[in-house]
């Protein structure tokens, strides 16, 4: 299996066919035996998606006629080669020879000359800085973000949009959540030290630890025994904000893949009942796997959260966490395909969906109960504007302070404290 050809196939499926990288990449990695090859495949696919417009801009300098139809996959093979030349330490000769060899695997021996010529030309321009290469390019090329998203970020964050874009281009750090039912944070840090795993940051007020670099989870001490989970530092605030207590009925709406459900149970093992609700059955499998590994118990329900008749038994909840379906614009560094899979028209559709789910799950909250509304978006339409509208149109809803900022809500921007972009607001139901 030629790894570059496999990368080109994955990228073709994601960019041209609209498939999720989270689906395509693991399927492709399963065809490789060597862990290093799996890692390189991931590096190439993530990298090309991060820098897609810049790579295409460079390719266009040396291709007179766009590659379409059956030749389209070779367009992505060329991008794979350019990415390696510009952004990795792989020797140029190995990059070019392996990428050209990918033509055979893709049944396009006649394309070898073109692929080789483009990469040789790019190689000659390696010493040029990005500033020089893209001096006359459009903003979507300069910043490797779609134009519609740049416009929304510029309007919402006129002072911060460039920092947000820069953060989106970074590789995500690795955050851990220590399971306090199994081990204390201090003792787990001791295990990391014994395993010679370096820590970059420890949150003194939670179970969050940030490592200096990513690692295979199987190398983490006690991972298989449920001592620790991988969860971004921003997402770890969700269960804390829920403030669940013993004997409470708790709903985690839109729960997959289950990290927040598990965290709620770790913090409140004596809860009366925790329901993990999600509309996608295949994603609920991940919830079940996480619960099993951590030796936790929750009721897993597959249903549309907006259709309460399909899943609610009529008994109200004391606490609700609604991590609503959203644009994912806060987690682009972790999922760079979001930039190319999302469209401007998706945002309004998501806002309507969020409103529908909000109204439905609110009806299941008991008077005096609280709901945490959360998204991994940084767009105001999905966040503050959504909450403002809900409070204005529901007389029994009050916006409660989270207690972490001067504002009622909390918008975490990508890269802030090395965390993902995330939004939180707390709503209380008047008794």
Automatic annotation (TrEMBL):
It comes from the Bacteria. One of its GO terms (biological process) is rRNA base methylation. CDD domains: AdoMet_MTases (cd02440). Its EC number is 2.1.1.176. Keywords: Cytoplasm, Methyltransferase, RNA-binding, rRNA processing, S-adenosyl-L-methionine, Transferase. It is found in: Cytoplasm. This is 16S rRNA (cytosine(967)-C(5))-methyltransferase. S-adenosyl-L-methionine binds at residues 254-260, 278, 304, 323. The active site is at 376 (nucleophile). PANTHER family: NOL1_NOP2_SUN FAMILY PROTEIN _ ANTITERMINATION NUSB DOMAIN-CONTAINING PROTEIN, NOP2 YEAST -RELATED NOL1/NOP2/FMU SUN DOMAIN-CONTAINING. Gene3D superfamilies: Helix hairpin bin (1.10.287.730), NusB-like (1.10.940.10), Sun protein, domain 3 (3.30.70.1170), Vaccinia Virus protein VP39 (3.40.50.150). One of its GO terms (molecular function) is rRNA (cytosine-C5-)-methyltransferase activity. Residues 164-430 form the SAM-dependent MTase RsmB/NOP-type domain. It is an enzyme of class 2 (transferase). InterPro entries: MeTrfase_RsmB-F_NOP2_cat, MeTrfase_RsmB-F_NOP2_dom, NusB-like_sf, NusB_RsmB_TIM44, RCMT, rRNA_ssu_MeTfrase_B, RsmB-like_ferredoxin, RsmB/NOL1/NOP2-like_CS. It comes from Thalassotalea litorea. Belongs to the class I-like SAM-binding methyltransferase superfamily. RsmB/NOP family.
């Amino acid at each position: 299996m030629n790894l570059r050809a496999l990368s080109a196939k994955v990228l073709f499926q994601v960019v041209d066919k609209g498939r999720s990288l989270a689906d395509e990449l693991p399927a492709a990695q399963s065809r490789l035996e060597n862990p290093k090859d799996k890692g390189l495949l991931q590096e190439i696919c993530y990298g090309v998606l991060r820098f897609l417009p810049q790579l295409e801009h460079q390719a266009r300098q040396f291709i007179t006629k766009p590659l379409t139809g059956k030749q389209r996959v070779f367009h992505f093979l060329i991008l794979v080669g350019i990415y390696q030349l510009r952004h990795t330490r792989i020797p140029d000769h190995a990059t070019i020879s392996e990428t050209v060899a990918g033509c055979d695997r893709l049944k396009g021996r006649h394309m070898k000359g073109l692929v080789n010529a483009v990469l040789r030309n790019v190689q000659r321009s390696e010493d040029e800085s990005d500033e020089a290469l893209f001096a006359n390019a459009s903003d979507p090329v300069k910043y490797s973000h779609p134009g519609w998203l740049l416009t929304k970020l510029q309007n919402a964050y006129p002072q911060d949009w460039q920092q947000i874009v820069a953060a989106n281009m970074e590789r995500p750090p690795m955050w851990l959540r220590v399971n306090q039912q199994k081990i204390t944070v201090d003792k787990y840090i001791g295990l990391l030290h014994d395993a010679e795993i370096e820590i970059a940051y420890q949150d003194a007020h939670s179970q969050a630890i940030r490592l200096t670099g990513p690692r295979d989870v199987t190398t983490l001490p006690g991972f298989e025994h449920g001592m620790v989970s991988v969860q971004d530092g921003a997402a770890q605030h969700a269960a804390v904000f829920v403030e669940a207590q013993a004997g409470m009925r708790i709903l985690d709406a839109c729960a997959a893949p289950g990290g927040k459900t598990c965290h709620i149970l770790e913090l409140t093992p004596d809860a009366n009942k925790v329901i993990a609700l999600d509309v996608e059955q295949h994603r609920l499998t991940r919830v079940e796997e996480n619960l099993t590994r951590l030796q936790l118990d929750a009721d897993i329900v597959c249903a549309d959260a907006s259709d309460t008749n399909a899943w609610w038994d009529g008994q109200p909840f004391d606490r609700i966490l609604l991590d609503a379906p959203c644009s994912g614009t806060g987690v682009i560094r972790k999922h760079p395909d979001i930039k190319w899979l999302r469209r401007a028209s998706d945002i309004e559709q998501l806002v309507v969906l969020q409103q529908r789910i909000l109204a439905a799950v609110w009806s299941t909250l008991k008077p005096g109960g609280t709901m945490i509304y959360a998204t991994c978006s940084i767009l105001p339409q999905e966040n503050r504007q959504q909450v403002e509208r809900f409070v204005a149109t529901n007389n029994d809803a009050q916006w409660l302070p989270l207690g972490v900022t001067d504002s009622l809500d909390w918008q975490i921007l990508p890269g802030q404290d090395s965390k993902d972009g995330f939004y939180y607001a707390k709503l209380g139901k008047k008794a």
